[in-house]
Amino acid sequence: MAAPVFVIVHGTYGGGWEWREVAGLLRTRGADVYTPTLTGLGERAHLLAPTTDLDTHIADVVGVIQSEQLSEVILCGQSYGGMVVTGVADRIPDKLAQVVYIDGLVPNNGEAVSDLVSPSDAPFIWSGADEAHNRLCLPFTPENMAGAPEEERAYAARCSDHPLRSWTQPIVLNAAGQSVPNTYIRCVADDPVSRLIERSAARARERGWNYVEFHGPHDAHYFMPAELTATLASMTLRR
After folding, report:
1. Residue 166 known to be catalytic
2. 156-196 residue pLDDT tens
């Protein structure tokens, strides 16, 4: 039996680096795991350009799957990564076994992140919008992180500005991705980012997707990797 294949897409400000622990734990369970970093972020921050947008990020992940000749992929998207995996599923559904949203955004055709997370919903994020330089600047300043635990400050220090156009460009879907089974892992926590995801989580419930609530923060993959890996494996590695 072939090893299960995971491709995991990170969220806003992040990179493949934040999935290192989960990837390692999945590999101990016999899986192959890819954690690409999207253009303009992480170790690819120097590639942020005026044209970097949602389509760029969808193409990043399609490129990994095609170049690595992957099939039967368990495609996971966390937070903003939900936008990306939705687009990937629409373009190459035949390469996927399942799409997993980990507290991820679930867009309809023609919607952008800005429709799901509006400036009025998240002024602390949108205050960093710099349209002239295509940047959604980090909201993690030394002042607002001063009282945070060391682990959270270390996480924030590794994050980078995010391409603004990826948040404002509407996704274009042709419904091909509807043939791929969907799973939703909802991170239930009293944190402001997690609350922004509820509209997408409600869509998953309304559509009858495989759904589970995980009691942990929005970035559980970084702060609770073992627990999230166990939940992810239990929902995706059934044979």
Report:
1. no
2. 889 999 999 999 999 999 999 999 999 999 999 887 787 89
